[in-house]
């Protein structure tokens, strides 16, 4: 799960303090499993070092939580590239994909394209696995079937999400 | 890449005030298997029927092997469907009064092949689909999965250039559905038939060479976009 890209996406709407960023992230993308302060600190310093965010304000006090961060043009390019790149299909992708879709909706990007690109990638892999399965012995077939069932579940989730995109947009748009 | 065999361009079709197709296009090349996916009511079956010359589109063209289907006479069109096209549907396509071998032989009989020869060829196809043992039974006496294999044999017995399959595995459990799809895919590859395969099931679509998604009556070739 790319915390850095999610931070960049969250900063696109407006600059935020470190603690605000953490709160927004925990609330939207990781309910019940809040980020550690160490993760927030490490992520923000990496983004700073790579020029993807800048500090554009300070509050009295210590540490990255008190600084206010703004995304740079390079940061926007980076999050854009991440959003348009399909994930490597593998089981249990849902949380990354969910994050991408929500970020796209929040920042006014075409979320349906993310779903389409991902769908294509998934079906491409399903075709490869199916070819392998067709030529394989029983053990190979069973291994391939395991992968196919998981990929199929992802695909069904993509279809369902595509069908509910308007509903989701109404909830996440500011 | 081989030449396009069947090209539907900018197809439109209304049913009363319901738009079923709004500018759908699809190109099928010789020997390829194309999966057509999309949600219920999006226009998949209508697209398939237009491509197969069963339904006449309100607008747009369907060109098969260089000839426009809608410009053909009814006689020419039904001869084309009989000789060059094969069909598999979800269920209810076998004639209940005929045995399985007679069902498979039927397209050949309609085309003037003598009974003995037609049934000989039908048996070859039943064997290929691994249902040679049901040849003498009536459709009511066999399982759904066996019935679909018989239907696939019937679609392929004339060695068509294009097989149109609308949810051919839709009424089967996943194991049987996949087996039918695997046999259909294999038979199509062996005879060089192209397949237009409408399906909801990703694991069935994965037997195709590529996929097209129909959304609100328009078809999208996502792989070409990507
Ligand atoms: N013969 C008909 N008369 C009236 N409306 C029709 C007819 N056939 C289809 N329609 C309508 O056209 C639209 C597209 O139907 P179509 O059967 O092509 O969808 P589909 O994608 O095949 O759906 P499904 O996955 O449920 O089979 C639907 O709104 C449907 O109600
Ligand atoms: Mg249909």
UniProtKB/TrEMBL annotation, chain A:
Residues 8-77 form the Transcription regulator PadR N-terminal domain. This is PadR family transcriptional regulator. Coiled coil: none annotated. It comes from Catellatospora coxensis.
UniProtKB/TrEMBL annotation, chain B:
InterPro entries: AAA+_ATPase, ABC_transporter-like_ATP-bd, ABC_transpr_LolD-like, MacB-like_ATP-bd, P-loop_NTPase. The keyword Transport applies. Keywords: ATP-binding, Nucleotide-binding, Transport. Residues 6-225 form the ABC transporter domain. The lineage of its organism: Bacteria, Bacillati, Actinomycetota, Actinomycetes, Micromonosporales. This is ABC transporter ATP-binding protein. Gene3D superfamilies: P-loop containing nucleotide triphosphate hydrolases. CDD domains: ABC_MJ0796_LolCDE_FtsE (cd03255). One of its GO terms (molecular function) is transmembrane transporter activity.
